[in-house]
Amino acid sequence: MHFGREDAERDVTEGLLLRGGFLPNPAYRAALSGRKMLIIGRKGSGKSAICMWLMSNAGHGGGKVLVTPDEAAGEEIRRFELQGLPGDSAKALIWRYVFAVHAARHLVTHAKDAHGKKPDSVKALGRFLKQNGEGPDGGGRLVERLAQGARGLQGSLSLEAFGAKASVNLAQSPSEGARAARQLEVVEQGVARAFADLGCDGVVHPPLLLMVDQLEQVWSAEPDSNSMVIGLLLAAKYAASLYGRSVRFLLFLRADIYDSLSFGEGDKFHGDELRIAWTEQALRDLALARAQASAGPGLSGEQLWKELFPQTVGGEEITAYLFGRCLPRPRDAIQFLNACVEKAWLGQERDRITEADVEQAGRQFSEWKLKDLASEYLVAHPFLRNLFPLFQNTGYVVTRAGLAHRFEAAAPTLHHEFPAYADVLTLSGVVDVLYGVGFLGVRRGSGVVYAGDDGLPVQPHETEFQVHPCFRAALGATRAIDLRCFEPQRVEARIASGNFSPGASGTSSLNRDDRLLMQLARSCHSIVAQVGRAVALTPDVRDEITSQVNRILDGVSRIPPRSAASMGIDVDEYLRTTAYYFTTLAAQLGAGGLEETTGIGDVVRRVEEEERRLRRSAGGSYGSSGDSLGY
User: Fold this and answer.
1) Mean pLDDT of the residues in the chain
2) Contacts of 191 (CB under 8 A, 6+ apart)
3) Is it the case that residue 17 has pLDDT exceeding 50?
4) Which of 18, 84, 171, 285 has the most CB within a 10 Å radius?
5) How many CB atoms lie within 10 A of CB 175?
6) Closest CA to 31 of 178, 197, 245, 211
């Protein structure tokens, strides 16, 4: 079994995407119907999969053109300027020229193949393409066609094909930009006329589908790069209005690129936007579709999640475990699932995936994703990798106060290494960035919200955050809060060995050791009860504190009555050791930065109170055996 490739281009080449590995989603249906023009999503969210599916005959039966600029083509657009026009408007003209030429090529071929005739308007387009070095066969690299168009717009295009009036010398235009705009209007009107003469209005046959993808390959967060993208948006909006139902435009943009743009007409594009969002159920459906495309349509969801995969991992249902530990996008899910398969097959050649396989794959996957996150945002946030140590080997629940303490120590180095980002490298700026990229979630009510779940940014009054489960293993942040474990090693070893003999006394009355151990148990129960009353605490934090205290209770329960002395256990020292642990626990909880409103203050005070009670019961001092018992 294989869940496919991480990139749609290879998936198409190898056939899995076309055999049923593509899952139609709302973004695909909106793109196919023409309701939306801008398909926006994070890296790996499935933008290119939609694009590749539409390019296949299965996705769209009409004419199709896909524009994917490489670095050379991107540089040509970034450098394009016209005197008299701002950068955004100039770059919109070069994009409009690209669209007009692609539409003209399509019409010259389409008129012959679908209509069996070439009206004069189509013949004029053919002559225009030939006279300007834009062959109708679509040959030549995009960068060469862009260079040709740039020279024409900055100088003069050959417009004789559209009649004597159109070819009048435009040298007297008030500016280079005005002359270029006028030349382009002549070409676009010729294209629109040809569509009208052929009756190609998207009713008789599907419209021409003109798509632009992979702009992230040529984007650099510089002003010229932003102008390149803004120009694309303006050009597509204008051309969609000009050509009507004859041409459908689809622009696939990465969310971080689109969200970084700021231009006057940005509010006019909201109705064209569709942001790709994946739920856990949608990812489950995608996984099953891809498994069936690989192993055969007879594979059921029951077989996949209960026979091929273990039903649970660490007590958590398998799909919740898998899809809760990856960012909500297909690429991550595919990588995690394939990693599980490879652990089972490449390592042991088993035909079933075990719980251990999933856990091992999860650790490897977490390391991949932490590196990938830094790479994904290297252009927009080059400092991102340097923020990860703030969350390493600590609890995954982070408070604003706790993060402030860590950030204060790291800020001088960050400002020195990234001086251009000093305005972002503040506590609130770092929180906003980490939330925006999906690294941190914010506690809202009884749940944790991650970017994409809620459009609301982090609010100033919000103080508790959680590292996304995807990154916890790589950071060593697998527990809610970083608490020391209670591990009195000598006692544990003696209990585990069973090396004791019951006392010779036949009395059933409690001796002093038993009373002290009962006092210890009552102290533990008192702390656990206080933690339970702190209902505003994050459940994961509450569970972590309870778990550590229950370790002490478990140790006490394994000492039979009247047997401590025969087991070689010094109960006074045992209580002093536990009191020392409670001191440490109270300090860790107090320094964790949790808000007083969560009830953590009452928990700390209860722990301190029980620590004093145990110390008094055991004779007052801590003694010197803390280190020998595992501390």
Assistant:
1) 85
2) 100, 103, 104, 107, 125, 243
3) yes
4) 18
5) 12
6) 211
Beta bridge pairs of residue 64: 209
> What is the pLDDT averaged over residues 55-68?
76
Residue 54 pLDDT grade (very low, low, confident, very high; cuts 50, 70, 90): confident
Q: What single letter denotes the amino acid at residue 375?
A: S
As a whole number of angstroms, the distance between CA 51 and CA 571 comes to 71
Assigned token pair, 472: 């916890």
Q: How far is the C-alpha of 471 from the C-alpha of 476, rounded, in Å?
A: 9
User: Virtual CA dihedral for 287, 293, 297, 299, nearest 10 degrees?
Assistant: -40
Whether 76 and 146 have beta carbons less than 8 Å apart is answered as yes
User: How many residues are recorded in the chain?
Assistant: 631
Dihedral sign, Cα of residue 213, residue 216, residue 218, residue 222: positive
Cα–Cα distance list, 103 to 58, 106, 230, 371 (Å): 22, 5, 21, 41
Q: Environment class of residue 501 by beta-carbon count within 10 Å: exposed (0-12), middle (13-18) or buried (19+)?
A: exposed
Q: Is 337 helix (H, G, I), strand (E, B) or coil?
A: helix
**443 has which bridge partners?**
448
- In this structure, are residues 205 and 114 in contact, taking their beta carbons and an 8 Å threshold? yes
Q: Which two tokens stand for residue 411?
A: 């800020």
> 382 near 438, Cβ under 8 Å?
no
How does residue 133 score in pLDDT terms, banded at 50, 70 and 90?
Answer: confident
What gap in Å lies between CA 10 and CA 3, rounded to an integer?
13
Distances (CA, A) of 503 to 38, 185, 564, 595: 80, 103, 9, 49
Instruction: Give counts: helices (H), strands (E), the chain.
Output: 24, 11
DSSP H/E element including 604 = helix 600-618
Q: Extract the tokens encoding 584.
A: 């440490």
The token duo for 239 is 């051309």
Strand intervals (E) in 195-303 = 208-212, 247-254, 273-275
| CB neighbour list of residue 166: distance below 8 Å, 6 or more residues apart | 159, 160, 186
CA distances (Å), origin 19, targets 56, 105, 554, 556: 12, 31, 55, 60
pLDDT digits (tens, 9 = 90+) for 396-452: 999 998 899 899 999 999 999 999 999 999 999 999 999 999 999 999 887 899 987
- DSSP per-residue codes, 214-236: -GGGG--SSHHHHHHHHHHHHHH
Per the CB < 8 A criterion, the answer to whether 387 and 377 are in contact is: no
Asked if 382 contacts 425 with a C-beta cutoff of 8 angstroms, the reply is no
How large is the C-alpha radius of gyration of the chain? 33
